[in-house]
Write a structure and sequence with these properties.
There is one protein chain. The protein is 43% helix and 12% strand. The chain is α+β, with helices and mostly antiparallel strands. It folds into two domains: 11-132, no CATH class; 136-227, no CATH class. The longest helix is centred in the middle third of the chain and has 29 residues, at 157-185.
C-alpha cells in the first residue's frame, strides 16, 4: 500500500518497503525492472536469492566474465555513482562498491541471478525457476478480472484499504478451498480453475446459507470434488483473441466530480 501520486509511487519505491519482509533463504523471482544494483545489493546482504531477466539497458558480453559454461559466466557490477530516488545517501553509501552477478543465456534470453554455483543451479534450473514468476501475473489477473478489483469504487483512503482487504480475504478463502479440494482429490492446487471455483462457490453460497449443519456436512465432500473437476488446460472453449468486442460509446471521459459537472450543465441550460 502506498500513495497514489507524487513521491513513493514508483514500483522500485514501493518494493523497497517490502524488502524487510523477505528472510534469509528466500528466493525472489522478479521482472527485469528490478534487476538493479541497489536492489540486488540489499537482497544479497539479507541472503535472499534473486532470479530475473537482464535489465533492458544492460548489454551482456559473454567474453569478459569468469566462464562457468556455454554463455554462463560470473561478472562484477560496479556501483553506480547516482543513487536511486527511493534510497537515502547514507544507506546508499553503505552498499559495496562491487557485486558479483551470474549471467546466463538460454534461447537468446539473458538471465541474471545471485545463485552463483553452476553445478548446484544449472541453467535449466534457473530458467524453470524464472518461469514460475508467470504465476504472479496470473494471480494479478485473477484479482483484477475474476474478483472485480480492476476498478476500486470507494472514495476515501480508509475505505479503499478495506475494499482491498476484503478482496484479498475472499481470494485467500477461495484458494484455501481449492487447496483442500486438490488435497482430497490428489491434484495440484495450481491445476484447478480459479474462475470455475468462484462460480461454483457463488452458486452454492445461498443454498449453504439457508441449510442446516447436517446438510452442509453431507454436501461438503461433493463440493470439493466439484471444485477439482475443472482443470486448467482442459476446457472445451477454444483460445480467444485478446480484443474487446463491445466498442466504447463516443462520449468524452468525465474528468471532474459528477456534482460539479451537473452544476455546470444546469448553469449552461439556465443561461441559454
Amino acid at each position: 500500500m502506498g500513495p497514489h501520486q507524487g513521491k513513493g509511487t514508483g514500483e522500485a519505491s514501493l518494493f523497497s518497503t517490502l524488502i524487510d519482509s523477505l528472510d534469509s533463504g528466500d528466493l525472489l523471482l522478479a521482472d527485469r525492472y528490478y534487476s538493479t544494483y541497489a536492489i540486488l545489493s540489499l537482497l544479497s546482504h539479507k541472503h535472499v536469492a534473486f532470479v530475473s531477466e537482464n535489465h533492458a539497458q544492460k548489454k551482456s558480453n559473454f567474453k569478459t566474465g569468469q566462464k562457468l559454461g556455454s554463455k554462463d559466466q560470473l561478472v562484477e557490477w560496479k556501483k553506480p555513482k547516482r543513487k536511486p530516488v527511493w534510497m537515502s545517501k547514507e544507506d546508499y553509501a553503505t552498499l559495496p562498491d562491487r557485486l558479483t552477478i551470474r549471467e546466463l543465456a538460454v534461447n537468446g534470453t539473458v538471465y541474471i541471478t545471485t545463485l552463483l554455483d553452476a553445478k548446484t543451479y544449472p541453467k535449466k534450473i534457473i530458467v524453470e525457476l524464472y518461469r514460475e514468476r508467470w504465476k504472479v501475473e496470473l494471480d494479478f489477473r485473477t484479482l483484477k478480472s475474476d474478483l472485480k478489483m480492476e476498478m476500486l469504487r470507494c472514495k476515501t483512503p480508509d475505505m479503499v484499504e478495506k475494499e482491498i482487504a476484503v478482496r484479498f480475504m475472499a481470494y485467500n478463502l477461495i484458494r484455501g478451498s481449492m487447496a483442500e479440494s486438490a488435497y482430497h482429490c490428489g491434484r495440484a492446487p495450481r491445476d484447478l480453475s480459479f474462475k470455475a471455483a468462484v462460480q461454483l462457490l457463488g452458486a452454492v453460497n445461498i443454498q449453504f446459507y439457508y441449510s442446516v449443519a447436517e446438510f452442509i456436512a453431507r454436501s461438503y465432500d461433493a463440493l470439493l470434488k466439484a471444485i477439482a473437476s475443472t482443470l486448467i488446460g482442459q476446457r472445451k472453449r477454444p483460445p480467444q483473441p485478446r480484443a474487446v468486442k463491445r466498442r466504447p460509446k463516443p462520449f468524452p471521459l468525465l474528468t471532474e466530480p459528477r456534482a460539479l459537472a451537473c452544476q455546470r450543465l444546469q448553469e449552461a441550460i439556465s443561461t441559454s
